[in-house]
Amino acid sequence: MFQNWEDLKKSCENCQKCELCKTRRNVVVGVGSPDAEVMFIGEGPGENEDLQGEPFVGRAGKLLDKMLTAVDLDRNKNIYIANIVKCRPPQNRDPKPGEQEMCIDWLRNQVKLIRPKIIVCLGRIAAARIIKPDIKITMEHGQFIEKNGVLMMAMLHPAAILRDPRRKPDAFNDFLILREKIKEICDHTY
For 160, which of 43, 118, 120, 140 is 20 to 30 Å away at the CA? Predict the structure, then answer.
């Protein structure tokens, strides 16, 4: 367990626990405020994220940023964004269960350092790993559950919205629900 961000980041960047380390360009640890009350978690970096070393910077990230801005959230000010795996799976495939298992302690450590009041899981893979294994994201997105004293919500992944734009109203509604919950339980003014 790391007690500070510098040690966690340095150790994570040198990780060799699984095969993903052999094909990565950058370890994508996370981005945002270290004292955020809201944390977003995705499944893993894609090609753009691997190149830039930051989560959600491609087309899906641009859509995420627009939706965040619409509800007064900002990756550089009042949230933290991380992924389950910190290295890009080849061809942007889903991270394998073994890869997730090798990497999950990094995420657990990030959660312990941040101590968020709300965790938002972006997409089925993250929601199944963090919230519950049998989650039906198309039916259960936008619903809060409490787990270990933290409110958690699954949202549709921004890449899924790009593939099926008809889901955009559902996704945006989830952000509105999130905004209301933040107003209700968070200390910071958003």
Answer: 118
